[in-house]
């Protein structure tokens, strides 16, 4: 990630766009997922009602979060789980490291958890001699490639099957040049099976934590969370504190929405409920804040915590499709990431709310109705007010606001602009003008509409 | 019916023909159209860049210019949406609220207020309709593909009244063109690529013209078409609806 640390979204996106056929492939792959989502949604006449219901359940959760969390904790303890609270990423990582080191465990299998990406758990544990293997196929691929996931649901969507073949050849011993997805998947299965059988500790994420019962639900298509959790002595479940739903009966609403929105499937292959530990085994739940209570306190941005991590906003976002997940330089990319990340570090992620045309597609595919594009607009205002924009931009904007507030200045500037276009096109048609790189400038007409109208009025008299 | 014509700044300066067509069309349809001459800009370029706090000058000027009309009509979904969502004034909030209610994008005004169902217009060409996002998802002048809801399109409904005009289908009927205001220069690479892909969709489906209720999108698409030396042209929807041969 070091090479991307100092570059902003626009620069990283420009690098991604140097290979246009690859951009086309990436765009079409994700559009295909969006189209599958559309077909799945269209099959349910009650789709919009489901979205509204999910949104309202989550609004209720956010308004009563502390009591639901306490209820969940009490019920989870009754079930025999051990509950830990982590105020931030550091605490989360330390809790997990302690659980492992106390038991002398230095190898762990982990199913998909964007929270552990957010907390950089793998790096933290690696520095302390703990080997973590990601068991989600896509995550395992990017882990072997030494990259972060580029998408929250489809972590290796930026990789072509031939590239995956090369990675597997290098790390898992598949035949050189082998790129048949079936054979590559079988290679991963054999490799992961050995991992599942030999790891004493398994970490999973949490999709939904049910306050009423103290159980939690994990959705996977590969069954990898179950394989890890059932075989290990200790199951650690990391959950963001917003993952709560009040009652078990609410689960159906979310399960119907989640995978239809994510991939167009009616439901995940495995929707597994975890409540009581097996005899002689342990279940630990780590509930993580890491900035969430700050976001909850931001009136304009709190409902970003309704997110159920389906990734639909990424698949539909034309900017995401044409810039790639890594250009967002944060664990959760795309539109939702761009409204979550500034809460964690406004300066570092000041570019992300601007990596959007505000087209609004994200807000309308969102299964829990987060007003993502309105929040992008609002983050822009907050970021400017906080001073995280270049001085040159602020000066330009002040000049523009001053000119546009005065009809006389506006007319003079407009006329000057048109004259420049007409008689000195080289002043705008050059490399210093980003518009001109791939587009011609508009042709300047002889007169503005205002001038035409004044003349017509004169003639009519 | 006293109608004020709200002409976006870049339309005033670069696309006067679209504003003339809007004016003539509204007059033809019986409106008493006024053009408040001291209008400049709705303030959206600053606001979308994070500088909404600098738009109070534009806001008061807008209120000065557009108070006292039955309707305010604008040949741009994007500028209309900005006024509808962001026009405020500390000392004159009542009037700002009134204006926010009375401002209409041209095609929604023609369909919802004037209830136009016949039109004396001819345009014998194959036309691709570009749905601008602010008109589509902001003003809801058409149904967006994200929702499970009945389809409709006010601009398409009007274009279908035009003699000789054939609307071409598109592979991605409402994908964003990538203009996005200052996005088009700040994120030049992605913006251009998005525009190229939209243009390709129209060309592949045989469009001779690309039309839209928003010239900002069309300005961006025109820049790409002209760079490609394409024969395909852009034209504002008002120019088609006002076209009688």
UniProtKB/TrEMBL annotation, chain A:
Pfam family, one: LUD_dom
Protein name, as recorded: Lactate utilization protein B
Sequence ranges assigned to domain 4Fe-4S ferredoxin-type in this UniProt record: 297-319
InterPro entries associated with the record: 4Fe4S_Fe-S-bd, 4Fe4S_Fe_S_CS, FTHF_cligase-like_sf, Helical_ferredxn, LUD_dom, LutB/LldF, LutB_C, NagB/RpiA_transferase-like
Matching PROSITE patterns: 4FE4S_FER_1 (PS00198), 4FE4S_FER_2 (PS51379)
Keyword tags: 4Fe-4S, Electron transport, Iron, Iron-sulfur, Metal-binding, Repeat, Transport
TrEMBL record, chain B:
All residue ranges annotated as the Cysteine-rich domain in the record: 3-84, 127-221
Domain of life, source organism: Bacteria
Signal peptide as annotated in the record: none
Protein name: (Fe-S)-binding protein
InterPro entries: Cys_rich_dom
One Pfam family named in its UniProt record: CCG
